[in-house]
Amino acid sequence: MMDDINNDLNEKKSKKYIYDAATGIGKTLGYLMPIAYKATEEKVVISTATTTLQNQLIDKDISMLKEVIPFNLNIVNLKGSQHYIDIDKFYQSLSIPQSKKATQIQMTLLVWLMETSTGDMEELNLLSMQDTIFAQIEHHGIRGLNKKSAFYSVDFLKRQEILRRHANIIITNHAYLLSHVDKLGGNDTVLIVDEAQHLNDNLLKENRKTIDFDQIKIISDSLLVKMESQLSFSFRDLVEINFITKAQYTELIRPIQTIDYEIMNLREIFMTYLNSNMNKASDVYVEVPIKPLNLRGMIKANLFIFKKIEKALRNLKRLQNKFSQKYSIAIVTGRLGLDEIQLINDYQKLLNLLLSEMKSWSYLDLNRLEDELETEFIWLTYPYKQENGHLRLNFIMLDGENFLNDRVYKKFSTVLLVGANLAMKETRDYMFRQLDLNSQVKIKKYDNIFDYSKQTRAYILKDIPDITSISKKEYIEYLSHDLEKILLNNNRQTLILFNSLEIIESVYPKLVKKIGSKREILAQGITGSVEKIKKRFMLGEGKILLGAGAFWEGIDLPENNLEMVIVTRLPFQSPDTVLNKARYRKLEKKGINSFYNLALPEAILRLQQGWGRLIRTPKDKGIFVLLDSRITNKNYGEKFISSFPDGVNLKSLKIDDLLKEITSFFDE
């Protein structure tokens, strides 16, 4: 792999290359060595899927690289501003009465600030960063800094910006890359996209925006109560102590009053549209699509309201900067008492929440809506049966086609995409569309380093019903019964993957009743958050974890941390959501079969992700079980089977024979 990358980097005929690198190929030996030499000639940007993987890249692979290369490189790690501490805000927080826990965190931060060179709060390795103190000190970007602050010149983000300009290698994540591509790109810059199979997912996530009408109303109401309160300290008291004038108070409150009032007028307009276009049979969770052309028409018909909110939002941002600077000076000079400080901090927290909630307001720009007519999907959602449900307007890009090439790849001299299953024949066309690639891209495929024939066994139950032909109640009964038999027969650390939290809610109590006294059962959405149950799962032996969504990918459970993966159902996405209907319809309009070119490849890749949880190191040993007969009795099942790694043979057995094989395999 090193030789291939070295040759490709020196070749000028093509700009884009794919390296389909199976799990287990080390990054240092795989691509970092030739990249390090290339970085002495051109700047290199390496982007990976998540900040967790980004940290691993820095702590493990980059550290190893520095030990073996015979020269020095300037390497910088870049993340979004929210990961960093704002020293000025932290200084201000020391003047505010805090809870005992928050005060302890402040003491920890003071010690850490004497040691850190980055200001990245992930260095603290805290189990949770949910305390309100973190909302007070979180960085909001260089533009929001007070230039008159004593800490302006030593701000961590300003330091990072200087380091970025002089770096040989920049390590970042896909989300940061996609939102800062103009700053990172250049004609003399190489882009390495690590975990490239996740680039499109990150693109869609970054471009998914929501306007929550009810949440905007709730926050603006809270702000007005805080500012106008007759029962506690309020902004009228700030006028009385001459911190602000009466005219300034009026100027500060007016845009919030405008937003508070007009947002409900808009909510009524969109609610009317929702009620007029909803499927009358849907009365639980309603989704109604809006064509960009129709949305433009609604905006034009109510332009006065939109313009008033837009102007109020603009004024709010301008006034916030002026007010924050005034407040910072008052803190330094000791002009304010504890009541005033508490009031202003509460106000600023709420104001930041409101501005954050309204970040997506620019998506209602008429010119933008006209430009995105073909690439964007817009829809309204409202949970009718949920008390105090929120009306939301949602925007999302349907795919990365005709986006990544022009807006990302062309910003760099050379692009290398590295990841698993990028060119797998069963999903290649789908992956190339998602990554916005053409057939001229140079592809290199590398074999897996694991010996699957020895390390694992894979089974499909023979005596299971066709799950598409039975009722939900029957499915729950059959699933619970078979899971119970498998789990009672052994004490192996087991991850059971579901397609929905709803099915987990139905199966969990049945399993607890039958085997809960013998084995601990953790269930996503029931016994804790994803992070909490993942940590509990890793701490014990013989635990059972029922998971969906996040548990299909991105979790590393090597050796005895995971010994069995059970997939309850082939991971097809629901075809009934308005978003998926729109995605399928877009392909059908081009004459492309949406099932075989979108739904099926997505499910194959998802199954591969689930499978990938099982074998993480050459020492791992594990069993894979699938409880869905469609893989053997449907025409498309063969595509799933052929996508498994070499050495994996999916064996069909009755459940009693499966139990014997599980015991036999682990006794070998």
What does this 3D model show about the protein?
The chain is an alpha/beta fold and 668 residues long. Helix content is 49%, strand content 14%. The chain contains 28 helices and 18 strands. The strands form three sheets. It has a seven-stranded parallel β-sheet, sandwiched between helices. A seven-stranded parallel β-sheet has the order 14-15-13-16-17-12-18, sandwiched between helices. The chain has a four-stranded antiparallel β-sheet with strand order 6-9-8-7, with helices on both faces. α2 crosses α3, α21 packs across α22 and α21 packs parallel to α28. The two termini are 34 Å apart. The model has no long low-confidence stretch (mean pLDDT 86).
How is this fold's topology laid out?
Elements: H1 2-10, E1 16-21, H2 27-38, E2 43-48, H3 51-68, E3 75-77, H4 87-93, H5 100-113, H6 132-137, H7 156-165, E4 169-173, H8 174-179, H9 181-184, E5 186-194, H10 199-206, E6 209-212, H11 213-228, H12 235-240, H13 246-277, E7 285-289, H14 292-301, H15 303-333, H16 338-357, H17 366-371, E8 376-383, E9 392-397, H18 404-407, E10 412-419, H19 428-434, E11 442-446, H20 452-455, E12 456-461, H21 472-489, E13 494-497, H22 501-515, E14 521-523, H23 530-539, E15 544-547, E16 564-567, H24 578-589, H25 594-611, E17 622-626, H26 630-633, H27 637-642, E18 650-653, H28 655-667
Parallel strand pairs: 1-10, 1-11, 2-4, 2-5, 3-4, 5-10, 12-17, 12-18, 13-15, 13-16, 14-15, 16-17
Antiparallel strand pairs: 6-9, 7-8, 8-9
